[in-house]
């Protein structure tokens, strides 16, 4: 038995040593932003830190717990000079981090009073493959939009500087939320900046809510910009008909490999996986949907 145990135990100890070494590297919190809907954004800097879109890190705050590490998706783009995470306050640890950062106080918090943060990572996810496709579908459910915030920011930076080598040409972006407050968790300023590109059919952004929110905003449907997002694309209400969405995209992009990326619950993953399979053609020259997922 020991021959089968000693190998995994050795690898586990190596992993713990690497994490301990990384935890000793200095991390500076440069900015703390309080968003509505019980969400805070931590912008940080760390020497030698390099990331790709959609990756995640493990975070430890000794002021809250000396042993607990928690995973968070990076919401910043690799082109930015900092890395950031969004933390929704839903438990004891996140509540402790909220208080340790002084977010429960009304007065301005001095930088030297901010708690020490340890970071391990970044670690790769399926979202890193976004730039391997010409056409992608990005589906985020609630706070699951965080990896795609990083993707959209990175795409915007690439198009602003040099898009000649960028393979990605079309993005279908779906953000499913139970209520309008979820939009306030993530700064959608970067999406508003896409308006010029959207008008040239570079991107398609679709925002979808549950039907219960439809009546409140029905009177604003005829306005030029959406009252929730400020974008020219109108917000859609109710659960999306995924079969119709896949068929429509397949008709628009015949003979293409289309990446489907999800960050959301397992039930939605099963639905999108089945649609990806059923709408892919047997002919190698036909359209194919490649499903990738991250669950929370």
UniProtKB/TrEMBL annotation:
<keyword id="KW-0285">Flavoprotein</keyword>
<keyword id="KW-0349">Heme</keyword>
<comment type="function">
    <text>Catalytic subunit of the phagocyte NADPH oxidase complex that mediates the transfer of electrons from cytosolic NADPH to O2 to produce the superoxide anion (O2(-)). In the activated complex, electrons are first transferred from NADPH to flavin adenine dinucleotide (FAD) and subsequently transferred via two heme molecules to molecular oxygen, producing superoxide through an outer-sphere reaction.</text>
</comment>
<keyword id="KW-0812">Transmembrane</keyword>
<dbReference type="InterPro" id="IPR039261">
    <property type="entry name" value="FNR_nucleotide-bd"/>
</dbReference>
<keyword id="KW-0274">FAD</keyword>
<dbReference type="InterPro" id="IPR050369">
    <property type="entry name" value="RBOH/FRE"/>
</dbReference>
<dbReference type="GO" id="GO:0034220">
    <property type="term" value="P:monoatomic ion transmembrane transport"/>
</dbReference>
<feature type="domain" description="FAD-binding FR-type">
    <location>
        <begin position="19"/>
        <end position="129"/>
    </location>
</feature>
<dbReference type="GO" id="GO:0034702">
    <property type="term" value="C:monoatomic ion channel complex"/>
</dbReference>
<dbReference type="InterPro" id="IPR013112">
    <property type="entry name" value="FAD-bd_8"/>
</dbReference>
<dbReference type="InterPro" id="IPR017938">
    <property type="entry name" value="Riboflavin_synthase-like_b-brl"/>
</dbReference>
<keyword id="KW-0479">Metal-binding</keyword>
<keyword id="KW-0406">Ion transport</keyword>
<keyword id="KW-1133">Transmembrane helix</keyword>
<keyword id="KW-0560">Oxidoreductase</keyword>
<dbReference type="GO" id="GO:0016175">
    <property type="term" value="F:superoxide-generating NAD(P)H oxidase activity"/>
</dbReference>
<dbReference type="InterPro" id="IPR013121">
    <property type="entry name" value="Fe_red_NAD-bd_6"/>
</dbReference>
<keyword id="KW-0832">Ubl conjugation</keyword>
<keyword id="KW-0521">NADP</keyword>
<keyword id="KW-1003">Cell membrane</keyword>
<dbReference type="GO" id="GO:0042554">
    <property type="term" value="P:superoxide anion generation"/>
</dbReference>
<dbReference type="GO" id="GO:0046872">
    <property type="term" value="F:metal ion binding"/>
</dbReference>
<keyword id="KW-0472">Membrane</keyword>
<protein>
    <recommendedName>
        <fullName>NADPH oxidase 2</fullName>
    </recommendedName>
</protein>
<keyword id="KW-0407">Ion channel</keyword>
<keyword id="KW-0249">Electron transport</keyword>
<dbReference type="GO" id="GO:0043020">
    <property type="term" value="C:NADPH oxidase complex"/>
</dbReference>
<keyword id="KW-0408">Iron</keyword>
<keyword id="KW-0325">Glycoprotein</keyword>
<dbReference type="GO" id="GO:0006952">
    <property type="term" value="P:defense response"/>
</dbReference>
<dbReference type="InterPro" id="IPR000778">
    <property type="entry name" value="Cyt_b245_heavy_chain"/>
</dbReference>
<dbReference type="Pfam" id="PF08022">
    <property type="entry name" value="FAD_binding_8"/>
</dbReference>
<keyword id="KW-0597">Phosphoprotein</keyword>
<dbReference type="Pfam" id="PF08030">
    <property type="entry name" value="NAD_binding_6"/>
</dbReference>
<dbReference type="InterPro" id="IPR017927">
    <property type="entry name" value="FAD-bd_FR_type"/>
</dbReference>
<keyword id="KW-0813">Transport</keyword>
<keyword id="KW-1017">Isopeptide bond</keyword>
<keyword id="KW-0851">Voltage-gated channel</keyword>
């Amino acid at each position: 038995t020991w021959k089968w145990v000693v190998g995994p135990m050795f690898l586990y100890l190596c992993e713990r040593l690497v994490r301990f070494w990384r935890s000793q590297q200095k991390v500076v919190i440069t900015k703390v932003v309080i968003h509505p809907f019980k969400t805070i954004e931590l912008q940080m800097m760390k020497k030698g830190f390099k990331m790709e879109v959609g990756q995640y890190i493990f975070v430890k705050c000794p002021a809250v717990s000396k042993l607990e590490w928690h995973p968070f998706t990076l919401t910043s783009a690799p082109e930015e000079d900092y890395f950031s995470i969004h933390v929704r306050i839903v438990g004891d640890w996140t509540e402790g981090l909220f208080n340790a950062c002084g977010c429960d106080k009304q007065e301005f918090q001095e930088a030297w009073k901010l708690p020490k943060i340890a970071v391990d990572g970044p670690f790769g996810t399926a979202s890193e493959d976004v730039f391997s496709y010409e056409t992608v579908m990005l589906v985020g459910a609630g706070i699951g939009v965080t990896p795609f915030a990083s993707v959209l920011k990175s795409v915007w930076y690439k198009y602003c500087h040099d898009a000649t080598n960028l393979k990605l040409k079309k993005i279908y972006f779906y953000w499913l939320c139970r209520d309008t407050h979820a939009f306030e968790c993530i700064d959608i300023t970067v999406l508003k900046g896409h308006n010029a590109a959207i008008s040239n059919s570079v991107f398609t952004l679709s925002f979808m809510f549950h039907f219960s929110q439809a009546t409140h905003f029905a009177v604003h449907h005829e306005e030029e910009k959406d009252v929730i997002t400020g974008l020219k694309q109108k917000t859609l209400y109710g659960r999306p008909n995924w079969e119709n969405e896949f068929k429509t995209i397949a008709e628009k992009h015949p003979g293409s490999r289309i990446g489907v990326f999800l960050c959301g619950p397992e039930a939605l993953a099963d639905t999108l996986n089945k649609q990806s399979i059923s709408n892919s053609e047997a002919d190698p020259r036909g359209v194919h949907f490649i499903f990738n997922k991250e669950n929370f």
